[in-house]
Design goal:
six-stranded antiparallel sheet; five-stranded antiparallel sheet; 4 helices; about 35% strand
Length: about 170
Amino acid sequence: MSELAADTLKLGERVQGRDVILSLAPPASRWSLRARDAAGLAKVCALKLPSKIGATAGGVAMLGPDEWYAVLPDGQTVPAGDNAAVSVVDISSRSVGIRVEGEGAAELLVTGCPLDLTHFAVGRATRTIYETVEIILMRTGDTSFHIEVWRSFAPWLWGSLAGVATER
């Protein structure tokens, strides 16, 4: 990262590189949803849950056989019900959303992410890393991605992405 980028780029300041734009996603409600019975969880939460690992639907990503991650409009709640077989946890304060958009979005992300993004379809989501930081990466369009990262790692990730974006 250039010295200029490291000294001047702050988390949340929109960054525009030659072929990529970084911006913070708007505030959102975030939920960790866990259950062995997807139908039971969907009924309790009143959400449509994707049924294939890596798929997304209505702001909900299926990350594992019994794990979903929901990014919903700010303030939207998810009912937990009284079913002991499901776990519904509000994690809204834990993460920050970062948008990476533009023709160079995938090229920027592969500078620190090991995924082959040429085969990462629109609507796909997965837990992965950027350098050493765990992220949830969602492809929202042909040239756009949404990253969920823990709040404590967000300034570092933002600086790293912004540094690469402005050096391009």
